[in-house]
Amino acid sequence: MISHISTGLIRVDKTEIDSKFTEMLGMCGQYFQADRSYLFMIAKSSRSMSCKHKWGNTAASSAPDLTSDLVAETIFHLAADHDSHEPMRVNNVTTLGVRDPSGKIYQSLDQAGAKSLMVIPIMSKTSIIGFWWLDTVDEDKTWTDDHAKQLGVIANILADTLAKVDAEREIYQMALYD
Q: Are the C-beta atoms of 66 and 38 separated by less than 8 Å?
């Protein structure tokens, strides 16, 4: 699967990046038996986060969409006692415990229908540029070290693809205005 994704994204350009990313989210969601998969990107100028791509299976169709605010708050709380450059996993959202003393995150995740989740940071060479969120809505899932490693490799491929497309956009803009 990783080689298929890598091959599919190696020649992607700005006109097809959205469809390829959505296709990749679906492929990974099915492979890892997640119900939803989202790409949240951090805006360079405002440091706010927004959902750029999403996929959901039929089980997820009845669950409410995640909001950028909920994802940002959840990531903030999960990263507080975690190296934020590593994937963050919650096999059962009811076990958030000390990471969510007020219960607010659990309540929000419960309202969004999330039972378990894996959050993978998307890194540029110098910083986190976004997060890839996968979750289940029907049942808890045990996210393993192998899942984290495989998703981390794919996140690196995503980051490289984004960097390539951004460079192409920059070159295009320079060609128009120089």
A: yes
> Tens digits of per-residue pLDDT, 134-160?
999 989 999 999 999 999 999 999 999
**Identity of the residue numbered 158:** L
The one-letter code for the residue type at 154 is: I
CB atoms within 10 A of CB 178: 5
Got the DSSP string for 114-177? Answer: -SEEEEEEEE-SSSEEEEEEEEESSS-----HHHHHHHHHHHHHHHHHHHHHHHHHHHHHHHHH
Closest C-alpha among 34, 49, 39 to residue 155:
39
Give CA–CA dist 112/103, Å, rounded.
14
> Encoding tokens for residue 174?
């320079």
E strands, 25-105, in order = 36-42, 49-56, 88-90
pTM of the predicted model as reported, rounded to 2 decimal places = 0.84
User: Rounded CA gap, 17 and 118, in Å?
Assistant: 23
Determine the 3-state secondary structure of 15 from DSSP. Answer: coil
Instruction: Give residue for tokens 């750029």.
Output: 52
Quick one: which of 119, 135, 124, 29 has its CA closest to 75?
A: 119
Residue 89 phi, psi dihedral angles, 5° rounding:
-130, 145
